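User: Can you recover a sequence for this backbone? Please restate the input before giving your answer.

Assistant: Of course. Working from this structure:
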């Protein structure tokens, strides 16, 4: 009889987004025609940039002509895109070789697939509150997971814990869900910690394009020593609106070795064995992201989302509610007022002002009592939602 992966039975029920959907659907059934303002969304709302659309159309036309038709591309990515990304890093003073860039169908896919490189006997350290898939992917593999709890005292971006025993370290900066960022000093401490222990940092940089503080690192490879202990996983989903188009990239330095094995070489073998790569059409669209015109247009979209974030943080400041995020990230992480629990606050906003956010408890136990608001929505909806919030809480938070 076939043996199954019994670790799937160890997964906790994924009730966060299912629970949000269930509660909102039930509310609309009771109040048909109500207009909900959704600030819990982690998806973008603006379309792809014109430069990207033009490149996608050109690539489709390429596929219609024999002289420009493209079949299989290199599994690790088309040279034109790997080179464009390497140039993008170089402009920020970070040296990355094109062959250290691996093109993927998105950061979420890569964050799970990269675990193939590590033994199930290795342990993972997850800083919580965290993107739930960090934990679930390791549970599926039968790996032990340690949790490092973050909180208000450390701005939800903690220092390394010298007592933790982990081989894989998940860091996300800017963070989903808290919007917090790691300072250069803190990242240096984490890199030193990983190198001392022979651990590997999986650095999720999906939101780096939202960083506006000139002193905050966009890449782990801005930090001394990172090339011997870190893998960086990036995405165009939030940077350039590729949530439905799907493209990301992973950086694995040649210097990163463990037990005599090159992780760059291992990942090359993994990708050439398990994938046929990302389509030519999508990679051509992605390359347009890194052109001057593409970047100008994308920065315009990010400016809209950052404007939404300022509306949210302005309302919370006016109400005297503690929060982090928003300045260098598309998410704002607020403390629930008057000691409310996160699902209790979710129900309160839904019932009283028809605003939907994301309960912090769904991102880990230490997220209880906090709430995530997203800046990816429509600007007019964001303004209206914050006016409703101020009207509801102005007296209650006094």
């Amino acid at each position: 009889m076939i043996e199954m992966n019994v670790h799937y039975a160890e997964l906790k029920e994924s009730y966060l987004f299912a629970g949000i959907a269930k509660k909102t659907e039930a509310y609309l059934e009771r109040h048909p025609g109500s207009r909900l303002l959704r600030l819990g969304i982690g998806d973008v709302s603006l379309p792809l940039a014109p430069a990207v659309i033009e490149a996608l159309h050109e690539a489709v036309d390429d596929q219609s002509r024999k002289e420009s038709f493209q079949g299989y591309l290199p599994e690790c990515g088309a040279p034109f895109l790997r080179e464009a990304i390497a140039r993008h890093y170089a402009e920020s003073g970070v040296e990355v070789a094109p062959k250290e860039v691996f093109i993927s169908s998105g950061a979420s896919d890569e964050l799970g697939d990269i675990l193939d490189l590590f033994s199930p006997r290795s342990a993972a350290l997850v800083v919580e509150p965290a993107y739930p898939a960090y934990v679930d992917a390791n549970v599926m593999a039968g790996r032990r997971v340690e949790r490092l709890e973050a909180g208000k005292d450390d701005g939800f971006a903690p220092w390394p814990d010298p007592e933790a025993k982990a081989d894989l370290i998940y860091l996300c900066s800017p963070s989903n869900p808290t919007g917090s960022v790691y300072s250069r000093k803190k990242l240096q401490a984490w890199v030193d910690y990983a190198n001392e222990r022979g651990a590997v940092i999986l650095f999720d940089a999906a939101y780096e394009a939202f960083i506006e503080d000139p002193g905050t690192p966009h890449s782990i490879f801005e930090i001394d020593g990172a090339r011997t202990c870190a893998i960086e996983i990036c995405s165009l989903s939030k940077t350039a609106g590729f949530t439905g188009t799907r493209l990301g990239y992973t950086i694995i330095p040649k210097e990163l070795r463990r037990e005599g094995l090159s992780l760059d070489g291992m990942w090359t073998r993994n990708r050439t064995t398990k994938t046929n790569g990302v389509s030519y059409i999508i990679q051509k669209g992605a390359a347009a992201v890194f052109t001057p015109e593409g970047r100008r247009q994308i920065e315009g979209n990010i400016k809209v989302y950052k404007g939404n974030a300022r509306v949210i943080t302005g309302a919370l400041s006016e109400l005297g509610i503690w929060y982090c995020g928003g300045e260098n990230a598309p998410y704002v992480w607020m403390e629930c007022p008057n000691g409310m629990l996160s699902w209790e606050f979710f129900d309160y906003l839904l019932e009283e002002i028809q605003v939907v956010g994301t309960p912090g408890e769904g991102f880990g136990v230490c997220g209880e009592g906090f709430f995530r608001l997203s800046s990816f929505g429509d600007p007019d909806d964001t303004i209206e939602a914050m006016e409703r919030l101020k009207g509801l809480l102005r007296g209650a938070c006094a």
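That completes the design. The first helix runs from residue 16 to 30.
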